[in-house]
Amino acid sequence: MYNPDEECIEMIRKIEFYCKEKGMTHNELAKKAGISKSTLSYLLCGKSKPYVYTILQLCNALEISLHDLVGDETEQEDARLCQRYHGLPEQKKKLFLTYLEMLEQYRKK
Q1: Which helix or strand (DSSP H or E) is residue 29 part of?
Q2: Is-contact 77 39, C-beta < 8 A?
Q3: pLDDT tens-digit series, residues 32-58
Q4: Dist CA 33 CA 15 (whole Å)
Q5: CB 62 within 8 A of CB 18
Q6: Tens digits of residue pLDDT in 55-73
């Protein structure tokens, strides 16, 4: 089951991460999300809990999916890895697959 307080803390951490990753200030995020600065401030300080609609607005403003914000980090890392793999030139894809095969052989030993 979910622990709502812990999930909110983790979600706030992710909002902060995506803001930094995109070089976006809290003021810019609030404006782009269409929410007040004080609403965002209370949310980030843990003084309030967001409505689902607010979470969706923040996802849109950060240009991320809802899953990026509330999903499992392992799944997110897997998705990012897949995106990076698909962006590689064919030669690097082959090298990467060779590397994975080597790791698998090593793991079996």
Answers
A1: helix 26-33
A2: no
A3: 999 999 999 999 998 999 899 999 999
A4: 12
A5: yes
A6: 999 999 999 988 888 876 6
